[in-house]
Amino acid sequence: MEKDTNESAAWTKRENESPIPKHERRASEKDIRESIAWAKINQDVLKSMETPRKLYWVILFFAFAAFSVGVGCEVYQYQNGMGVSNKNNPHAWGLYISTFIFWIGMSHSGTLLSAILHLMHADWRKPIFRFAEALTTFSLMTAGLFVMVHLGRLWQFYYSVPYPDERGLWPNFQSPLLWDAMAIFTYLSSSILFLYIGMIPDLAICRDHLHEGWRKNLYTWLSLGWEGTDRQWRNFRVTYLTIACFLIPLAVSVHSIVAADFAMSQQPGWHVTSFPAYFVAGALYSGCSAIITLFIILRYVFKFEEYMTLPILKKTVRLTFAIAMIWTYLNAVEFASVWYSHDQASKDVLIQKVIGPFAPFWWGMIFCGSVVPLTLAFKRFQTNIPVLFVVSLLLNLGMWLERWMIVAPTFSHGYYPWTWDHDQWPGFVQWGMVFASFGWFTMLFMGFCKVFPSVSMYEVKEMVYHRKLHLKKSETAEQGAH
Amino acid sequence: MSVSNLLENWAQFRHFHPIDDKPHDPYKWAMSIDLDACTGCNACSVACYAENNLPVVGKEKYQHGHGMHWMRIERYWDEGLGVAGGSDFPDHGAQFLPMMCQQCEAAPCETVCPAAATNHTADGLNSQIYNRCVGSRYCSANCPFKVRYFNWYDYPTTDNVWPAEMNQQLNPDVTVRSKGVMEKCTFCVQRLHAAKGTAKNEGRLVHDGDVQTACQQVCPTGAITFGNLVDHESKVHKQWQSQQVELDKDAQVKDQKEGGSGLRGYRIFEELRPYPSVMYLERVRESAI
Predict the structure, then answer these.
(1) Confidence of residue B288 (pLDDT cuts 50, 70, 90)
(2) C-alpha span between A21 and A234 (Å, rounded)
(3) Does residue B93 fall inside a structural domain?
(4) The domain that contains B61 carries what CATH number?
(5) Burial call B127-146: b when 16+ CB within 10 Å, e when fewer
(6) How far is B136 from chain A (nearest CA, A)?
(7) How far is A424 from chain B (nearest CA, A)?
(8) Total number of domains constituting chain B
(9) Model confidence over A106-119: pLDDT tens digits?
(10) CB-based contacts of A419, cutoff 8 Å, min separation 6
(11) What ipTM describes this predicted complex?
């Protein structure tokens, strides 16, 4: 243990300059130092919300520029029709739907960390769940954009949403796409609610530390008169727990329904029963690796070394590794069930994936999704920040490729030869839109980090308190033993 | 009002499943295509373009897979039928398969449309409501035949496929579709409606010969037969009956008898159970003679 911490500390110079006293850092592998003063927690987190440095504006500008590329592409596509994105008759979906699944998948991380781990009393989630929840909300918003961009008649999108109208017209309740629309709206609204409710005590802290300006008004308004009374805390706990319980089945259902878009269809390569489980595993996988990426960035940018500690990173990495192996297993299950199904069309699609025109991407997916995570099994890499940064990006690349490899090969190799089209390649409009989605997400996330506390102050205090209690208990036990 | 519509009347839109005990009455439009008679001349495809206001997208867009041929001729090459020792392709052994929307009774496209833009009609057609289509293309994704065509561009205006005066040749009975909607073969539903109207005025049902689809009308070899499957006097009914092809079965006698039944009628992808309304008559191959 000790050696590990030393080694990882050597990786970055900043690590050595961290404010944690050396003896405490070495003492044992603990998620958080128990001697952090509560005022210091407030101070550190509020500092992250101060007027940003120049670099912030530069990155924000580039994110906006990337987003503008997408706006341009969408305007062009809107004016001229979907044809400009280089889709065609067999290839009806393409990158929009693949990237939609990618972003939906990424949104599962927040729920995993804040709701599931909350119910399991995993204390280590506390410093990192807030930004994971923001990740959930913003990636859902990004995914929603792709649904819109994908529609041939964007201006009529509300036809596929159930709303009462005077003509008594309803959407088709048999369509998985409709379930999708409803599941995503529900999940988005619930996760915004969850993010907001979990933030109320923190917003009150922000309110109390500010003296004037629009932010003071904003926090005053949003903190709903929070004073931290016993009654408020009790109601808060119950509400938070209730929404957490509500959110877990929602999160599972959202990606199962996205899987149903494929599994419920009749196409070779999609008509697989294991898809819902496979999709949920993939979602948690990409979500966890996105958390690692953002963990490293926030820790560096906001100097959150005291809260986003290496032992917490280590636990996240182990979780990611476990999910990666589950994903690999479910991948194998899918191949096996297709192979032994004796359904020639499905088998042909699988063969096309392995040796056909998509082979480099398919093998890239296998490499990034199943081989790269093996590095996470080694202890020396579990706290090695540069390696983890690269690995987490690779994992997400793999997960993006996975979604593409689910969507595209089935279109390129349908039931019979006339419908085959192996040469189709997404046009620049599609790539531009994918590129822009990252800019859009970055914009939202960066905005969030400056307006709202990206580390939960009250939960970190709670964690420190739990830690103190634990120490006291073990000390008493030790004295009793003597 | 609207909610009661949802709760009480929803089922009425979805009850024309061939397995249901509700037979089509008095019409069930169906087709049979004799592949032995088909010469692959493409006249049916051209007629379809003229009748249904299909945009001619041009060579480049066609090559990008943006062609709008509701009725298409698929070409396949048989092996070993051509000149001895030489390759059959492309001079010998070509076979043709006219392919259009199969008007499936349990259509995979209908269940997946989020906006309910594609539905089944009482006379057994798979209808497409252009006004209601949002362009999600899920129907096309789920169609095993890939016979649904999407308006990738705005053909009438931006693309100007029918410049002034050329637009005079458009069929006034058929709407011109704008960008972003899905379309497909309708079995010339405008002609069916006209024939039904005439028959109704005369106080009778539509007989064989009252109505022809555009492709059937122009087929020089008479390979295409179209009519009312419920009408026992119709030619299409007689053909289906003589081939022992039944609408609500997912496997026909032809496939069940070992060693050849002498029957030629089959439907494509019956094992997927879409219950298509188009029966093909197998080509009498040299090997089978």
Answers:
(1) very low
(2) 36
(3) yes
(4) 3.30.70.20
(5) bbebebbbbbbbbbbbbbbb
(6) 5
(7) 8
(8) 1
(9) 988 878 777 888 88
(10) A90, B145, B146
(11) 0.87
